[in-house]
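Thread: magnesium ion complex, take 2
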Amino acid sequence: MKTFTGIPASPGFASGKAFVYQGDAPLEIPRYSVTEAELSAEWERLQKALAEAAGEIKALYERANREMGREQADIFKAHLFMLEDFDFHEQIKEKLHKNLLNVEWIVWDVSREISQKLMRSPEPLFRERAVDITDVSRRLIDNLLSVTRSRSTLADLDEDVILVSHDLLPSDTLIMNKSRVKGLALDEGSRTSHTAILARAFNIPAVLGLSLVSREIRDGETVALNGSSGIVIVDPDQQTLARQEDEEKLERKQTNRLNALRDLPAETTDGCRVTLKANIEFPEEAEKVLHYGAEGIGLYRSEFLFITPGNAAEEDTQYQAYSHVLKTMGTLPVTIRTIDVGGDKIVPDLQVAQGQYTSEKNPLLGLRAIRFSLEYPELFKVQLRAILRASVYGNVRIMFPMISGIEELDQAHVLLDQARAECTAKGQAFAPNIETGVMIEIPSAAMTSDILAEKSDFFSIGTNDLIQYTMAVDRGNEKVSHLGEYHHPAVLRFLKRIIDAAHEKGIKAAMCGELAGDPAATAILIGLGLDEFSMNASSIPLVKQVIRETSLESCKSLAAECLQGRSIAEARAAVKAHGI
Ligand code: PEP
Ligand code: MG
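Output below.
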């Protein structure tokens, strides 16, 4: 029996056979010079890779035809057509001879040029083709590099497993057969990494940041995992399994007790009422959040629509998804955050098409979120029009991610106005007076929150990123993630500054980072004056219980003492002394 301790990232218990997944090798394409004499060998390598790719695509076509129908299968027909396209081959040949570089690099370069051209087209049909070009060239490059992509093994899982891996891309998490993944144990990641957020959305118990677990556990070994305590046990004895079962029963009882609070208000003992909302990543989650008594959706991470295989670049696909959420939530507010790709949320098809996938050295400081949307305004306006059109079905609010200053906010509003005008020109109806808000998650936004508040209907504090960027701590890196501490005076002062700035301008301050769902932080946040908490829906009952058992007065004095702390330790000591 071997025990590992990691970061408890998604609560719950699981035991079963380990499935060790090697994951996709990152798409790192070597670039090296070749001599003129080597050109024919390079060309031959390409011919071989083309033949292999054609075989794979034909097999995919047949499978899709069998399992999904003609329409889906036609996608692969189009891929085959591109693969065999004479012009594509000619462009590769020309560049190969001109640049004298290895053929995988040339394939990448040519396909990037083609897809960038297509992506800038206002025609949705051409933009879709860009994604296909990317897909085809990736397959070709994989074959040239002899990389076997094993994602399909995740999708095809046909027995219950504990998935063990070094890391998972959010897109891996989406693709995997979730009904078979009973638990997740990863070397990398932290509580606020997006894989953790997705595991919680899917209710899959998860322990992350386990360092070397993927090398220590072998396929088929029995693993017991506790996502609440962060313990992973390999080859557990009967006693351990029985103890885990007891703990599971206890946790279930507590959950049932908390769920009874569903219809009670989130109000302190002295009458301070706050709003509890849910974060969602997928449209289908809307039903679930109502079950937990959420008073709306405080954060809909719309980018996951783009990570899900399908046609998210299409305005109608987005319109359907947003409409579904709005209809499900009725009159309750739904805050749709515009696309936040980049950082650890790689949307390969979209970003490779834009040439952003491999070229960023520091993706967390790169073309992420609103920066991506402002760089590709046509893409951004597709999303804005889809939201506007869906707005007639409910109470939508639009939120812009990673705003760093007023210029970006102004530019986003210009594009929103254009999207409104475009809808009007087409006779498409949308709700009047849609509220727009800003995520405060960059120190520069926190420092200028008084300025941003003048042009915002609400703020939502993204503590996952605000802490990451304030303390220079990569939120997905288990070696440093523990350093990202909200008790740090810099973070507490930022929170106070943001909330005060909102109130001074008469707007509400919400929080949708993971801190909002942490019951240990609830009292401080109430004391700082936070109006709205948005979190994973299943955390709502526990946070509500904490609120209902405390008074605003004690929360305020706790917050004041924490703010006086000169260090993390002093703020923590204040919390301990208060005993709440
Ligand atoms: C945040 O940064 O706190 C946030 C809610 O956004 P995301 O986790 O999607 O980056
Ligand atoms: Mg964020």
